[in-house]
Amino acid sequence: MTFEAFITTFFISLRHGSIVALATLGIVLIYRTSKATNFAQGMIGTFNAYVAGYLMIHHGASIWVATLVALITAFITGVIIDKLFIRPASKSSAVGKQIMTLGIILILVGIMNMNFGLIGRVTNTNNRVTRFIPTTQTVSIFGQNIPWDTVFVTVLAMVLMGAIFWFIQKTRWGLGVRVTASNEPVARLMGVPTRTITMLSWSVAAMLGTIAGIALASTQGGITVGLLIGVQISAFFAAVLGGFQTFHGPVIMAYVLGFTLRMSRYIMMTVFAQSSVLADALIYTLVLVVLYFMPYGIFGKAPVRKV
Amino acid sequence: MESLLKVNDLYVSYGPIKALRGISIEVPKGSIIAILGSNGAGKSTLLKSLTGLIPSESGTVHYQGRDITKSSVERITADGISHVPEGREIFNDLTVYENLKIGAFTIKATSLPPEAVHASIRKRVGSSRITKHGDDEQLRLNKHEVYENNLARVYELFPVLKERTNQLASTLSGGEMQMLAIGRALMGTPTLLVLDEPSLGLAPLIVKRIFEVIKQLNGYGISVLLVEQNALQALKIADYAYVLQVGEIVKKGVAKVLANDRELIEAYLGK
Amino acid sequence: MTKKLKKALTFFDHHVSCISRRVHRVLSSIPQLQFVLFGLAMVIVGYIVYTGSSPGNINVLAIIMIYSMVALGLNLLLGYGGLISLSTAPVMGLAAHGMRILVVGEQFGQVNYFLAIVIVLVLSVFMGLLIGLLSLKMEGIYLAIATLFFGYIIAELAGAFELFSYGQSARMGAITFFGDTSLSWIHDIWTLYLIVVATVTLVVIGLYNILKSPTGRAFMAISRSQHAALAMGISVRRYRFLAFVISTVVAAIGGILYVTFRQRTGAFDSRWNLELSLILLAIVVVGGLKSFFGMFLGAMIIIGIPEFYFERIEAFIINRGWFGESFRMLGFSDVFAGLMIVLAILFYPRGAIMIFYTLKAKLIALKQRKAGRDVSIDVE
C-alpha cells in the first residue's frame, strides 16, 4: 500500500469510526438510563435521516436545513418512544424492553415501507443525498486531497461527543445522568428528575443516530431501510466490547472497530484481492472470539449479582 | 410545639397485603422522633410512603401545613425532606465528592439562622446580610453559598469524608458509607431528616458516633424522623417514640418513659 | 314450553359434557393426540381453502404452520431460559439454501433429496453447537447481541463466497424432481401441504416429548429460578447449550420445509434477515405460554391477520392523489407486528393466549356465582 493511499484510507476510516461512535454513544446513553438495549437505534436514525433525504430530494432543501428539521423530528421521535413505550414498560425486565425495541424496529420499518412512493424516490441513485460540504472542496493533508466533508463529519462527531462527555462529567445535570444510570430510585430521592433525564437520553440518542444516518447516506447512493444496519451491528459490537458499564469504553471501541473495519476492507481488496465483505466477516468473527474469552468486554467487569 | 410533619390515618398495601393500617404520627418542629419495631413491622414502608417512593392507599401526609400525600419524590426532596434509605444506597461508581454534590441537586438560595452557618462562610459573607425577624436573626445566602456551607458542615461532621473526597464511594468501609449517606442527605439543606436504620450492620463504636451526629444535627435545628431496630440507642436520643407492629402503632409515648418500660422492651423489641 | 326447552337444554348439556369429559380423559392419557387432532383439523381447513375460491391462501396456512413450529423451538430459549436468539432467520435461510445447493447441485454436485436433508441437519447441529458455545460464556442481553452477530456473520460469509447467488428456484418435489422417481408421487401443492402438516405435527410431538422428559423438567426448573435450579444440581449452562442446539435444529427443519413447500429458497438478504428473526420473536412474545397452540395463535395474529385481512381490503389500498398513483400500504403488516409486540410486553407479558385464560377464569367465576344464586333460590 502506498503512503498516499494509506492517508486517504486513514481519513475515510476515521470518518466511518466517527459514525459508528455516534450511534454507539446513543445506545450506551439509553442503556445506562433506561436499562434497555436499544436495537432500534439504527432504525430511528434511518427514519429521521429519511426525513432529511426527502426534504433534500423533493423540496430542494439544503443539507443544513434538512438536517436541522431531521434533528427536530428525531428529538420528537425520542420523546414519543420514551413516553409511549419505554416508560409504561419500566417494570418489565431488561429482556422485555429489548424485545420492545425490536418491536419499535418493525413499526419504523413498516412506516417507511408504507410506500407512499417515497422510498423509491429517495433511493434513486440520481437523487443521492448531498454531502455537507461538496467533495469538490478538498484540503491537502500530507500531500493528499482529503474532501472537506470527511474532515467535517469527523470533527463534528468528535466535537459533539466531546461536548456530551464534558456535559456528563462536569455539569450538575450530567451528574444527574450518571446517578440515574447508577441507581434510579435513589437518584429520585436526591430530587433528580430521572424521568426527564431518561426521556432526554432517548431524544439525544435519536439525534446522534440521525446525524450518523445523514453522514452515512451522503457517501452512499441514498437512503434505504437498511442504511444503518451495518453501523448498528458495529455499534453493538463496540458497546459489548467496551462494556456497557462505562460511557467512554464503547465510544473508544467504536472508533477502533469502525476504523479497523474500513482499513481491513481496503487491505482485503488491495493486498489479497478478495471481496471487501469477507473483511467484515473476519473482523466480526475475531471480535466474537474475543468476546468468548472476555464476555463483558475489554473495559467491563462481570456484573455483581446480589443473592 | 408547632408540627412539621403530620401523618393522618395512612394505609399502604402491596397488592393484597396490607403493610400499613391507619398510621398516624406527628413530628414537631426541632424534635427527634423514633419509630421502633421488629423486622417486617412496616417501618421502612412508612418512610418510603412519606417520601413518595410508594403510593399510599388512603390517609394524608401534611408537611409544613401543606398536603404532600400525592407529591412526587423529587418535589418532596426539594421541599426539604431528605431520606437516608436503608442499606445506605450510595452511588458506588461515583466519587465521595460527587455523591455529596448530587445531594445538593435541589438546593436554592435560602435564609439560615447564623448558628447553622459554618464559621468560614459566616466570615466571608459578613454581617451585612443579616435580617431580623423579631428576636430571630437570619443570614441570607445565595445558592452557591448554601452549597459551600453544606459541604463545609458535612466535612466538619465527618472529617474522614474530606480525606477520601476523590475516592470511589465503593472503596469506603461500612461506617464511612453510612456517614456519606447522611452527609449526602445533609447537602440538600433538609428541614426534616428521615433516617432508615442508620445503625444496621455497623460496629458498636461507629453506631455510637452516628447517634452522636444525629443529636448534634438536631441541635442545628434539623428535625429527625428515625427508624430503628436498635431500640435502646434510639430511645436515648429521641424525644418521642412510636412502636410499630404488623402495620399498626401499638404503643407511643415520651422516649424516656418508654426506655424504662421493661415489658415493651422485652415484648416488642427483644433485648 | 319453557320447561320443555329447559329440559332439552339440560339433556343436550349433559351429553356434551359427557363427550367432552370422555375426550378429555383420552387426551390426558395420550396428550400427544391433541397435536394429531390439530394436524387433522389443519388438513380439513387446508382442504376447504384449497378447494375454495382462493386456493392461494393455502400458502399462507403452510407458512403459518412452519413459523409456529420454528417459534416453538425459539420458545425453548425465551420461554424457559429468558434468552433471545436473533440468529433464527439466518439459520432457516442457510438450511433452505443448503438444500437447494445440494439438490440442484450447480456448485458441488447433486445429492439425493433425503441425503441432502441429513447433511443439512448435521450442519445445523454443528451451527447450534457454535451458538451454544457462546451461551456458555455470555448472559442476557450480551448473549442476544452475540446471536445477532452470529447471524450477521453467516450472511456476510455467504455473501463473500457467493454461495447463494446461483438463483432461487429449487424445484424439489416431483413437479420436476431431477429424475428422482422415488418422489414422483409429489405432484401438486396439496401433497406438499400435507407433507408440511405431517412434519410440523411430528416435530411438535417430538418437542412435547422432550419437554415432558427429565430434560424438559430441568428446563422448567431453570425457567422458574436459575439459582434454585443450580442449587438442585441442574447445570444451567448445559441445558442452555442444549436449548440452543434444539432450537437451531428446529429452525433448520423449518428452512427445509420452506424450500420444499415453496420450491424457492428466497433471497438471503431480503427474506432471511433480521426482520424475519424479529417476526418469529414477535410470534413467541405475542403467543407466549410455552405451548404450540400459543405459537399458532401468535403466528395467526402476526402473519395471518395481515395476510388474510389487511392485504385484501380496500381501505388499505390508499389512493394518494398527491402522487397520482395508488399505493398499497405494504408496511402495514410490519407496523401491526411491531405494535403487537409492544402491546404484548405492556399488557400481556405472558402472551396473548393468556387472554383466553383470563376469559375462562371469568367465565368460571360467573358460572359459580350463578350456581350460588341458583342454590339460594332453591333454599327459598
What does this structure look like?
The complex is a heterotrimer of chains A (307), B (271) and C (380). Chain A is mainly α. Chain A has one domain (3-293): ABC transporter involved in vitamin B12 uptake, BtuC, CATH 1.10.3470. In chain A, 72% of the residues lie in helices and 3% in strands. In chain A, strands 1-2 form a two-stranded antiparallel sheet. Chain A starts with a helix and ends in a 14-residue tail after the last helix. The model of chain A has no long low-confidence stretch (mean pLDDT 83). Chain B is an alpha/beta fold and 271 residues long. Chain B has a single domain, classed as 3-Layer(aba) Sandwich (Rossmann fold), CATH 3.40.50.300. Chain B has helices at residues 43-50, 73-78, 96-103, 119-125, 143-157, 159-163, 174-186, 204-219, 231-237, 255-259, 262-268; strands spanning 3-14, 17-28, 32-36, 58-63, 66-67, 81-84, 110-112, 130-133, 136-141, 192-196, 223-228, 240-245, 248-254. In chain B, the strands form three sheets. Chain B has a six-stranded mixed sheet with strand order 6-10-11-3-12-13, with helices on both faces. In chain B, strands 2-1-4-5 form a four-stranded antiparallel sheet, covered by helices on one side. Chain C has 14 helices and two strands. Chain C has helices at residues 2-29, 33-51, 57-81, 88-104, 113-137, 140-160, 189-212, 214-224, 226-231, 236-262, 274-287, 292-310, 332-347, 353-379; strands at 317-320, 325-328. Chains in contact: A-B, A-C. Chains A and C meet through helix 4, helix 10 and helix 12 of A and helix 5, helix 6, helix 11, strand 2 and helix 13 of C.
